Amino acid sequence: MHALTFSLATEADIPALVELVTSSYRGDASRAGWTTEADLLDGNRIDPEVLREDIVRPRSRILLAHRDDALIACAHVAEQDGAGYFGMFSVAPTAQGGGLGRIVLTEAERLAREDLGLATMRMTVIDVRDELIAWYERRGYRRTGIKKPFPYGDERFGIPKRPDLRFEILEKPL
């Protein structure tokens, strides 16, 4: 296995990021990995304009992981309400299950702690994603019990297939 290289996204990376994130979560391609949301949501996983705003916003970084010059994973790290926010975490479906996600998560936490000077990382996870939540718990995140509504009706974030989706906030001290 070749080494990963990390960089930060620019606006030129938007098309590749949209493709990676979509393939990791939606449609038949996502079923090759274990993080698929294909049974929960259709449509977009990321809106290019929202992504552009995240790239240019101060104290917001899109972390890219490459192997052999191919984009293989990404994550969004930003300051939000005085803590780190971790989102848009995507690993190419055919590369999942081999420890790559753990390496990218560790680098994202380092970025939040060292580059942004943040002491806590938070994320939102769809609360019916038990296997995914358990994966984060094994990496030190804890369920806060704080729930947020899913943005039903805003198709920039997908078309729900169920009426009971909501987010739960997970948190970890850095």
TrEMBL record:
UniProt entry keywords in alphabetical sequence: Acyltransferase, Transferase
Signal peptide bounds: none
Entries under InterPro entries matching the protein: Acyl_CoA_acyltransferase (IPR016181), Bact_Acetyltransf (IPR050832), GNAT_dom (IPR000182)
Alphabetical list of Pfam families matching this protein: Acetyltransf_1
Domain of life: Bacteria
UniProt GO molecular function: acyltransferase activity, transferring groups other than amino-acyl groups
Database matches in PANTHER family: AMINOALKYLPHOSPHONATE N-ACETYLTRANSFERASE-RELATED, AMINOALKYLPHOSPHONATE N-ACETYLTRANSFERASE-RELATED-RELATED
Listed name of the protein: GNAT family N-acetyltransferase
Species the sequence originates in: Marilutibacter maris
